[in-house]
Design goal:
The protein has 20 helices and 14 strands. By secondary structure, it is α/β, with parallel strands linked by helices. A 5-stranded antiparallel beta sheet has the order 2-1-5-4-3, sandwiched between helices. Strands 7-10-13-6-14 form a 5-stranded parallel beta sheet, sandwiched between helices. A hairpin with a 5-residue loop joins strand 1 and strand 2. The longest helix is centred in the N-terminal third of the chain and has 59 residues. The chain starts with a helix and ends in a 6-residue tail after the last helix. About 5% of the residues have low confidence.
Amino acid sequence: MQKAFINVFNNVLGSVREPLLVLDNSHKVVGANPSFYKNFCVTQENTEGALIYDLGNGQWNIPKLRELLEEVLPQNCVFNDFEVEHSFENIGPKIMHLNARKINLKSIDAQLILLAIEDVTEREHYKRNLEEIVEARTSELALARQAAEKEKETAETALLEIQKLKKQLEGEKAYLTEEIKLEHNHENIIGKSDALKYVLYKVEQIAATHTTVLVLGETGTGKELVARAVHHSSPRRKRALVKINCAALPANLIENELFGHEKGAFTGSSARQLGRFEIANGATLFLDEIGELPLELQGKLLRVIQDGEFERLGSPHTIKVDARIIAATNRNLEQEVKKGNFREDLWYRLNVFPITMPPLRDRIEDIPLLVAFYVKKIARRLGKDTPIVPKLMMDTFLNYDWPGNVRELENILERAVIISSGPKLRMVDDFNKPLASLGNTHKIKESKTLEQVEHDHIVQVLEQTNWKVSGKNSATQILGLNRSTLRARMRKLDIIKP
């Protein structure tokens, strides 16, 4: 019966391309198909009847093969895809899947083992190479993902910076839109006096630095022009000079203007608003009339000057800014410190580099240049021919004390140009009254304080306009002040309409 099986094996399975072996119970080779001999380069004479482990001079003594035949198969009638990896001397390394099946021959009470061998070397190598490729590709993708996440993070950071700059520019645009509605002297400082040359020399000294500047001087001397000269000569000149008048607003509004607020910070705050410090980030902030800043806000201002940090109203987040500070005042801050109206530490922080703008009475030689400049400017604005300034009028200008300084000169010249219809400049009537007693007024005013002079001058203008504060031909127009600034000065100097 075994011989009959072998005949069937040879006749039927001989054409199968997969290597096949038939083993007896002792694992000797009963037979093999031609594919086995061909693939493993062995002969039939050296194979049939030999113990499978002895084939090829013992090359088939493979531990995994022994495990299959002696341990696995006795427990199972069939076992498929048992992987064996081995290197043969004549054919090299092979990866084989072994499929074993027990065949019982009841007629002779014998048992055979059919062993099919599938060569999966190329497939497994491809699979393993593919795994290595996938692993390498996975590593590449992981690195690419990390790089992409880093680029995303960089892009998000850049986007946040762009949004921050956009908000700052929007705030600056809104600020400048309001600024151009106001009337300013943007021209260069006019004059040739030694006092003015010394001011310009100090401007050149300090402009290129980031040092805080304190501009001192009487009302109307042109302190803002000095601030603009410092800014326009500095590395920050490509950005706008941001300005706030500390006397023009009440304390709660000044804080909002300086530091801004979040949406919902107080009743009516329907949107976030940037403060002047944020708008001036990277630029220059001009704090005009700093002596009028309420005491409760001076500490917050000191912190920004010292640390460059503040919080918007309604926000717990600290904002860092780089804004150069230029402050101006017509007050004696040292005296204000002694009176307890101004913080001593803030005074020291502001008084790093003081520049004093001289009053017009101390730069008489500049008056002809200023008169010629303003007459031409005002006439051009009003659409008139530039009138000639008579010598008598010029002499009058040179002998006048000018308590309102350059601002008073400009306002008087504007009124004169308005009423002048001929080729010569005519003096406005209300200017003759103080000129009638010039000899005495100079001595009287020398004994007055700066506040008294300012008080008397404002009262004189208000009386001249019948106490009309704002509008056409009003005190604000003559004095060259904003309505809120004039009212703040009136409160400060205790000026009340009789």
